[in-house]
């Protein structure tokens, strides 16, 4: 695998496009020690960035939750994302805007640290390109829990929170599963390590309320498509028992787009689902919408227009 510090291309770094291999920071950077970086994952399709303004707005909110403001205006960062796509001659791409506190302090307090911002982009094939859109995922129930909002900045896409996902996914992968499902501290369904989870039950899409994890921008888009296709959507507390009894289950997020779940396993727990018509229809509708095509309603779910 090609290391991410040894690639060709250009990265937008504090206002300038610099060669990929020169976009570096010091080992004494505060956010490396204290986990205070914030970031976004964004996809571009055919050179057009998907919901760029929403992602940059969330990046700004994430920084504010962590106690600092970005030095760049939202429109400047959107234009910087576009410049990175153009400079690297990318069509379909994954973008990673990230902001962090600099190296002026390594103590807990770093109110005077310089705030840096960088944006990288690279060719990361979409799930359809990798043959994963229709392939169901197998999830392991994790022993790790998502923290409450009064114990961690859960509404922020903060680098420090991702250690939980790393630990949970490593454990799941070691058992032969694709990913892990995490519960909240009360034992209700939260999300997977890096994507929101949605169940389909009785023709309604139900997702756990994002009160201890990051709300997915891609999920919001999928819910809009579902409403256009005549499907009901809900966000509420979801029990593990309800999830296991659902008709269909899928995960949604920037990296995975929409991917069906076919199995959940844990101590004294085994649930299986088929890849159902609602999930297949939403996958088709999503791919149509990001490619500039019109999704249309068909038999209660969305399919790609011919």
Automatic annotation (TrEMBL):
Q: Which InterPro entries match?
A: Aminotrans_IV, Aminotransferase-like, B_amino_transI, BCAT-like_C, BCAT-like_N, Class-IV_PLP-Dep_Aminotrnsfr
Q: Name one GO biological process term.
A: L-valine biosynthetic process
The reply to whether Transferase figures as a keyword in the UniProt entry is yes
Q: Give the EC number.
A: 2.6.1.42
What does UniProt give as the signal peptide span?
none
Keyword terms of this UniProt record:
Amino-acid biosynthesis, Aminotransferase, Branched-chain amino acid biosynthesis, Pyridoxal phosphate, Transferase
Q: Which cofactor does it need?
A: pyridoxal 5'-phosphate
Q: Name one GO molecular function term.
A: L-leucine-2-oxoglutarate transaminase activity
**Pfam families reported in the protein's UniProt record:** Aminotran_4
User: Which pathway does the record list?
Assistant: Amino-acid biosynthesis; L-isoleucine biosynthesis; L-isoleucine from 2-oxobutanoate: step 4/4; Amino-acid biosynthesis; L-leucine biosynthesis; L-leucine from 3-methyl-2-oxobutanoate: step 4/4; Amino-acid biosynthesis; L-valine biosynthesis; L-valine from pyruvate: step 4/4
Catalytically driven reaction(s): L-isoleucine + 2-oxoglutarate = (S)-3-methyl-2-oxopentanoate + L-glutamate; L-leucine + 2-oxoglutarate = 4-methyl-2-oxopentanoate + L-glutamate; L-valine + 2-oxoglutarate = 3-methyl-2-oxobutanoate + L-glutamate
The protein's superkingdom reads: Bacteria
**Similarity annotation:** Belongs to the class-IV pyridoxal-phosphate-dependent aminotransferase family.
Function per UniProt: Acts on leucine, isoleucine and valine.
Name under which the protein is recorded: Branched-chain-amino-acid aminotransferase
């Amino acid at each position: 695998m090609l290391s991410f510090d040894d690639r060709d291309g250009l990265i937008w770094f504090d206002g300038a496009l610099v060669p990929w291999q020169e976009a570096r920071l010091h080992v004494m950077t505060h956010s490396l020690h204290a986990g205070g970086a914030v970031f976004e994952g964004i996809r571009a399709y055919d050179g057009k960035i998907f919901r760029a303004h929403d992602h940059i707005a969330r990046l700004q909110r994430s920084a504010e939750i962590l106690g600092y403001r970005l030095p760049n205006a939202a429109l400047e960062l959107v234009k910087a994302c576009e410049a990175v796509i153009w400079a690297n001659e990318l069509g379909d791409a994954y973008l990673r805007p990230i902001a962090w506190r600099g190296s002026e302090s390594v103590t807990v307090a770093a109110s005077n640290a310089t705030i840096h911002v960088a944006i990288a982009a690279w060719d990361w094939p979409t799930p359809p390109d990798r043959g994963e859109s229709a392939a169901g995922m197998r999830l392991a129930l994790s022993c790790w829990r998502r923290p409450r909002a009064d114990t961690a900045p859960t509404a922020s896409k903060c680098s420090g929170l991702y250690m939980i996902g790393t630990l949970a996914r490593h454990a799941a992968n070691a058992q032969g599963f694709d990913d892990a499902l995490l519960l909240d501290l009360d034992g209700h369904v939260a999300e997977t390590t890096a994507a929101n989870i949605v169940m389909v039950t009785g023709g309604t899409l139900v997702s756990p309320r994002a009160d201890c994890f990051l709300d997915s921008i891609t999920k919001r888009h999928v819910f809009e498509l579902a409403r256009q296709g005549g499907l009901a959507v809900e966000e509420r507390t979801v029990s593990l028992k309800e999830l296991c009894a659902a008709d269909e289950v899928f995960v949604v997020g920037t990296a995975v787009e929409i991917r069906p779940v076919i199995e959940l396993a844990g101590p004294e727990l085994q649930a299986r689902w088929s890849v159902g018509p609602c999930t297949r229809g939403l996958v088709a509708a999503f791919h149509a919408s990001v490619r500039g095509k019109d999704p249309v309603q068909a038999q209660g779910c969305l399919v790609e227009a011919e």
